[in-house]
Amino acid sequence: MLFDSTVRKELARSFGATLMVILTIFMTNLVIRTLGLAANGAVAAQDVVFIFTLLALQTLPTILSLSLFIGVILTLGRMYRESEMAIWFSSGIGLKRFIRPVVATSWPIIVLIGILMLFVWPWSYNQYNDLRARFEQRADVLRASPGQFQASGDGHRVFFVEKAASAATGGGRNVFIMSDAGTRESVAVSQSGKIENVGSDRFLVLDSGHMEQNDKTSGEHTHVEFKNYRVHAGTGASPNNSAPSPRAVDTADLILGGGPAYMGELAWRLGLILGATNLLFMGISLSAANPRRASNWGLLFAALAFVIYYNLLNLTQAWVGSGRVNIVVAMVVLHGLAFCRGLGLIWWREHATVIHPMKLLLRRRPA
Fold first, then answer.
1. Cα–Cα distance between 110 and 117 in angstroms, integer?
2. pLDDT the model gives residue 240
3. Is the Cβ–Cβ distance between 206 and 187 less than 8 Å?
4. DSSP-derived 3-state class of residue 204
5. Strand ranges (DSSP E) for 200-349?
6. Given pLDDT bands bounded at 50, 70 and 90, which one contains residue 325?
7. What pLDDT shows up at residue 113?
8. What is the value of pTM for the model shown?
9. β-sheet with 172-180: strand ranges across
């Protein structure tokens, strides 16, 4: 049918353009965030691309939902402003008739959001947490990127490696170490260094260098040349036996777990899927615009509705996660009311000119 194909084509075009703009903004922020993590020593430099991919997968469901919502607003809003909607209405096509082409265009995106939230979301968080945990368990000197100063976990030592050696040796060339042991300060410089494991401890072995020591109390200064010098560089990686974060747990395990924290995470995942669907109906009802007054108030109200809905999702997750509200009650109240509100606004937009309380009141007055 001409009507369905026209609406679907316009909606697909608006969704694609909106998605490109929002993706550019979000991806730019993610690049800055990921590079900041690497610069601050929170993640390994060689893992930056993979971490960026994981963070992008985590934000993609929200981006798709927002782009789809704005695409519906822009498509129908343009039809209102250019009086194209008046032509459809005069042809006997009501506003509720737009639900079918909008849903037919949007259901693949909704399915993609569901796959991302139910399967990709926990996998990406699990991979991200594993990378962070493995990096935190590495020795302080191993976390030092070439050409970058790296402080130890206790803050008493600063490492600098000018050039990394092979991965097998676990050290580098031109190693610099500054230590502060309370009353004594020392600076050690060597041509090379490597990591040696002794039991559960790690030692940095420096070769062919010198060390300057200074006693803060007496002011005594000492210069030492050495061929081999060992510095304690932390302990070996210990197994992480702590409970995994609910965000990193598979959806099936969340359902079987049954704890409040797991139910809160499940409410968030299902809520984003249902929310993306409800936003379609809200977008159809909020896109109305007066062709005689060109304004963007409809788009502003739509953005406000998205922010409020998104914050209510976070609030629902917090309440369910703390055990204050049952997940079924929370889902029915939030998403059920949003669904009814969206359909109710569509019905009101379509029948507002036919059934109006003031008109009914005026008609009942005697002449």
1. 11
2. 53
3. no
4. strand
5. 201-215, 221-235
6. very high
7. 96
8. 0.76
9. 149-151, 157-164, 172-180, 184-198, 201-215, 221-235
**Angle at Cα 248 formed by Cα 260 and Cα 305, nearest 5°?**
70
Among the listed residues 14, 99, 80, the one whose alpha carbon sits nearest the alpha carbon of residue 287? 80
**Contact at 8 Å (CB) between 270 and 177?**
no
The residue among 364 and 341 whose pLDDT is bigger is 341
Place of tokens 């075009």: 13
Residues 218-247 have a mean pLDDT of 73
- Provide the token pair at 8: 């679907």
Structure tokens at 257: 């777990």
Rounded to an integer, what distance in angstroms lies between the CA atom of residue 140 and that of residue 190? 17
pLDDT digits (tens, 9 = 90+) for 112-141: 999 999 999 999 999 988 887 777 665 555
Residues 6+ apart with CB under 8 A from 150: 41, 140, 141, 143, 144, 158, 159, 160
Contact 286, 345 (CB under 8 A): yes
Residue-level pLDDT at 123: 95
Beta-ladder partners of 177: 159, 188
Could you tell me the residue ranges of all domains in the chain? 2-135+243-363, 141-235
CA distance 173 to 100: 66
Using only C-alpha atoms, what is the Rg of the chain?
A: 30
Provide long-range contacts, Cβ within 8 A and 24+ apart, for 350-354.
350/94, 350/95, 350/96
Give me the phi and psi of 186, to 5 degrees please.
Answer: -145, 145
- CB-based contact 246:268 (threshold 8 Å): no
Phi (first) and psi of residue 169, to 5 degrees: -80, -30
Provide the terminal-to-terminal Cα distance of the chain, rounded to the nearest Å.
48
**In this structure, which amino acid lies at residue 281?**
F
Rounded-to-integer distance, Cα 218 and Cα 65, Å: 67
Return the sign of the alpha-carbon dihedral for residues 17, 21, 26, 31: positive
Question: What mean pLDDT do residues 83-100 have?
Answer: 86
DSSP H helix total and E strand total for the chain:
11, 6
Q: Is the dihedral of CA 315, 321, 325, 331 positive or negative?
A: positive
Report the alpha-carbon distance of residue 187 to residue 206 in Å, rounded.
12
